[in-house]
Specification:
The chain has about 140 residues and is an alpha+beta fold. It has helices spanning about 20-30, 60-70, 90-100; strands at about 1-15, 15-20, 35-45, 50-55, 100-105, 110, 115-125, 130-140. The strands form two sheets. The chain has a five-stranded antiparallel beta sheet with strand order 1-8-3-5-6, covered by helices on one side. A hairpin with a 2-residue loop joins strand 5 (about 100-105) and strand 6. The chain is elongated, with a radius of gyration of 16 Å.
Length: about 140
């Protein structure tokens, strides 16, 4: 069993759901290709952003995700935690609901995503924030 770990910093983004599959692949591609089977864990080190798997083709899905999450956790609720602005507490709620980590199987040196699956970074704050993800690979390397 082999392990590899790296950290990837996403560029600053404002509120929205962003397809980041290719960014993740670029960050780990050379190392990932060495593995026959295993798991990739993505862990976002933040409390007002999240990661999820969803539709990778139709950009309207990402817009609809933002709309639906805003409906579930609107800025207009009477939150007590308001020190960082009206978008902060809804961001924490959305992050808790969507989650900050993903486990994706490795098959023959590739992420074993479904045909229509992509990795989303969901930024829940209005203003641009830089986010960081710890990427851990665990698995069996290919025989040389």
């Amino acid at each position: 069993m082999s392990w590899f770990q790296t950290t990837h910093r996403f560029p600053a983004r404002s509120k929205g759901c962003y397809l980041v599959t290719d960014e993740i692949r670029r960050a780990i591609g050379p190392e990932l290709s060495k593995y026959e089977v295993g798991m990739v864990n993505l862990f976002l080190q933040h409390t007002s952003a999240s990661l999820c798997l969803n539709e990778n083709v139709c950009s309207e899905v990402r817009d609809d995700m933002v709309m639906a999450l805003d409906h579930i956790a609107p800025e207009t609720l009477p939150y007590e935690h308001t020190d960082e602005g009206p978008d902060d507490m809804p961001g924490h709620v959305k992050s808790a609901l969507v989650g900050v980590s993903l486990n994706i199987p490795i098959r023959n040196g590739q992420l074993a995503l479904g045909t229509w699956q992509g990795i989303y970074l969901c930024e829940h704050r209005t203003y641009r924030h830089t986010r960081q993800v710890v990427i851990t690979i665990q698995g069996q390397k290919k025989q040389s």
